[in-house]
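sry for the spam today, last one i promise. struct tokens for design, 389 residues
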């Protein structure tokens, strides 16, 4: 059974007020709100698709949408607790409109699984003072390990050395950065870690840029040698980098600041360069961004000019592929629009075959080889222009 005294303390007005205040003050930090944007496809004809019993008669219609940060769920022990928190959220948001959030109240009447002692423990991962001794020892050990890893990184691979020479050194560096990424992913949820990363954002981006360079180098080495197991003992934590990487909106904000400095603040150019090189997604767009920056002296509005620039470059690049590979223009454009709608270039099925020229147009050559060449070019085109328009 739930301890009545503990339930009373759990739902005390003071505690509810403090928890609510904490959530409102730290919501942006915890959900990356207003820091990172993400693109995803929204299904616009949900009811029609759901009603299609054969799952083949109705085509899904999707619309690309940008979101900033993540949503979150705050779970409490009872309906009564949910009501009290809801009222407190409304009260505090009314007092501080700048902290206001959109809140929905959801009741779940399913019982929690019984704990051995009949008591459901509270969870508050941000308040480390409430951790039991075992958890606190684990946290302190994690922080200590992180400090050791950063010290090792700075000592063995200083940034003033331009390259990491030798396979053994490269493997050690890759392993070290991976360990740091995993540790940061664990520690970032604790408030006391913020501001104590022990390495500046710019320096860390420098290291991530080198990490990405090695990722590309090892990938190319594997493809050239045709040996799939050449890096079996090497693991690149690219997905963890994607969780902390800079997006195009942040880059454009820096570009706007550079423009406002009358293109005199060269430190901003260095920051932009390092951020791009550290990002798995932006690296394929590096020359596109740099060419844009080189021509912004006479630009009035950076954002408007960027969208026009991307649209123009995308059209030129696509037209070039169509002409070089003698593809069917209308079918190719429809194929690419579908790729940007769905978020991926589909290489299976008949759609890709429909855009290829007739066999006689390329002299009866190897159609499979032609198809692979076209796919590679369209993939590169997609990566270059995806999620930046």
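last one done:
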């Amino acid at each position: 059974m739930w301890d009545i005294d503990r339930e009373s303390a759990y739902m005390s007005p003071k505690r509810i007020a403090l928890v609510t205040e904490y959530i409102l003050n730290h919501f942006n930090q915890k959900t990356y709100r207003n820091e990172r944007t993400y693109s995803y496809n929204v299904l616009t004809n949900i009811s029609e698709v759901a009603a299609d019993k054969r799952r083949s008669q109705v085509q899904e219609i999707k619309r690309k949408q940008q979101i900033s940060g993540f949503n979150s769920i705050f779970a409490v022990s009872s309906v009564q607790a949910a009501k009290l928190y809801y009222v407190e959220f409304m009260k505090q948001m009314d007092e501080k409109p700048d902290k206001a959030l959109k809140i929905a109240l959801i009741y779940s009447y399913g019982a929690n699984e019984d704990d051995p002692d009949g008591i459901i423990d509270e969870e508050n991962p941000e308040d480390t003072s409430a951790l039991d001794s075992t958890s606190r020892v684990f946290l302190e050990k994690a922080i200590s390990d992180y400090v050791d890893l950063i010290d090792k990184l700075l000592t063995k691979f200083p940034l003033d050395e331009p390259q990491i020479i030798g396979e053994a050194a490269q493997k050690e560096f890759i392993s070290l950065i991976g360990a740091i990424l995993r540790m940061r992913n664990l520690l970032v949820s604790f408030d006391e870690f913020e501001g104590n990363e022990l390495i500046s954002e710019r320096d860390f981006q420098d290291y991530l840029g080198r990490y990405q360079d090695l990722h590309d180098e090892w990938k190319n080495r594997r493809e050239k040698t045709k040996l799939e197991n050449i890096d079996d003992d090497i693991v690149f934590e690219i997905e963890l980098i994607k969780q902390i990487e800079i997006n195009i909106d942040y880059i454009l904000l820096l570009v706007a600041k550079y423009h406002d400095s009358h293109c005199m603040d060269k430190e901003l150019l260095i920051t932009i360069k390092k951020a791009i090189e550290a990002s798995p997604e932006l690296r394929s767009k590096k020359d596109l961004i740099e060419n844009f920056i080189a021509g912004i002296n006479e630009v009035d509005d950076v954002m408007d000019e960027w969208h026009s620039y991307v649209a123009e470059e995308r059209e030129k690049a696509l037209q070039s592929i169509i002409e070089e590979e003698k593809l069917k223009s209308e079918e190719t454009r429809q194929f690419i629009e579908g790729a940007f709608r769905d978020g991926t270039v589909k290489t299976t099925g008949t759609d890709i075959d429909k855009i290829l020229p007739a066999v006689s147009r390329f002299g009866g050559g190897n159609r499979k080889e032609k198809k692979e060449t076209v796919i590679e070019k369209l993939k590169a085109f997609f990566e270059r222009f995806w999620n930046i328009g």
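The mean pLDDT is 78. ok im logging off now
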